[in-house]
Every structure is written in structure tokens, then in C-alpha cells.
Amino acid sequence: MRVLVVEDEERIARFLKQGLEEENYAVDVASDGPSALDWVAGAKYDLILLDVMLPGLTGFEVCRILRQRGVVTPILMLTARDEIDDRVSGLDAGADDYLPKPFAFKELLARMRALARRSTTATTPDTVLKMADLELDTITHKATRGRREIELTPKEYALLEYFMRHPHRPLSRTLIRENIWGYDYYGASNVVDVYVRHLRQKLEANGEPPLIHTVRGVGYKLDGEE
What does the DSSP assignment read for 50-73? Predict the structure, then answer.
């Protein structure tokens, strides 16, 4: 999942980014209201964590503007303000849930998973992605090819899910890196090629036909036929 964290307190933003990345989320961070709107206009997110007290625009205003623009991404509002009126204001602005600070990180993750399940159910009741004889359960994170179960690391799972949500479509290395590792990834430049190679080895471990194909000059695509 790709998440936008909108938080102006650097310490909290850094904590959330590190913790979520360790849980296999791709995370971008905006430090004020206008920047949050710019990020959402330029990228597709699965979830937005939105602080209320922000420079430029409040979280309430950001939420209201996003909903007016037709953005339906689930929004979880984070704030130190725990008054009933504040919670009502956030929900009325279009937020899907409200979590007061300080909060347990475990509870944050649980609420994020709940919002993701609701969003998935609302958009597509089928949580199992399929390509040829490959199946990926997006709830249990279980991958199988034929009758063989495939063990995946968190990043391998995220990469495979991204491919399976965009079948038959050539995906550039830059696009894959930004969606799986985030915009501000500055690690190894060949990280996509390394993980694709690992994923191919696992998907073809018993001599099965290739599903991930190299698109010369572009990147890769998932396709049952080549």
C-alpha cells in the first residue's frame, strides 16, 4: 500500500515513515496543507494519514478540499485534539476515521488495515488476484502457483501485488520504484532489477513458464502470454 503522511512535526513524521516502511508500506510525507494537496494531485494513494493542526491549511480544510475534488482515498485523521466537536468536524469534512494522539502504533496499523478492507470491499469484492495459474490473496498475503505455495518477503509481495494490479501493462523501473519504495528512495539504483530477479526465481522455481517479462527500453510487465 502507498500512504501519504501529512504531519508538520518532523519527529512524528519521521517515526511514522520509518514504522510504516518497516511494515511494508511505501510512504511519502507532506509537512503542510498545500503540499498535501499537491502530493495527492500528482500521485495515487491507498490511504492518507492527516494531522489536523497544519501550516497553510488545517487538516479539516485539506480533507474537505480533497472530497470536493472527488478524491475518495480513505483518510485517517491524527490529532492531539480529542474533543467530541473536533472529531465530528473531521468526520463531517469527509474523514473516514479519527485517532487522537498519543496513540499506540499497533492501533494505528489496525485502523489502517480496517480502512483498507473497507475500501477494497467497496471497490472490488474479489480480494484474490489471478494471472494464469498464479493467485495472490491480498488479505492473507498468500501466493500460490498451481498447488505450490510461494514464500515471499514483504517487498517481494508488494512488488508482485503491484504487477498483478496492472496486468499486461509495461511498467517502467521508475514507476515501480516510486510505488514500492517511495519517491524519496535513494538506495541502490538497480533495486527494481534485483527484486524482479528474486521474484522470477520464486515464481518459476519448478520450471513454470515465465510471467514477468522484460520490456526492452521500458521495464517489466506481468503477462500470461508472451
Answer: EESS-SSS-HHHHHHHHHHTT---
- pLDDT tens sequence across 89-125: 778 888 899 888 888 999 999 999 888 877 655 444 4
CA gap 225, 92 in Å, rounded: 48
Sheet with 219-222, edge to edge strand ranges? 171-172, 219-222, 212-215
Torsions phi, psi for 215 (to 5 deg): -105, 105
State the Cα–Cα distance between residues 19 and 54, nearest whole angstrom.
Answer: 21
- In sequence order, the 6+-apart residues with CB closer than 8 A to the CB of 119 are 46, 47, 74
Q: How distant, in Å, are the alpha carbons of 28, 49, 171, 191, 218 from that of 174?
A: 15, 25, 8, 11, 9
For residue 171, what is the DSSP state?
A: E
pLDDT interval class at 79 (50, 70, 90): confident
Element housing 155 (H / E): helix 154-165
CATH tag for 128-222 (out of 1.20.58.1370, 3.90.180.10, 1.10.10.10, 1.10.3720.10): 1.10.10.10
pTM: 0.60
184 pLDDT more than 70 = no
Q: What is the per-residue pLDDT across 58-76, written as a single tens digit (0 to 9) for each?
A: 999 999 999 998 888 999 9
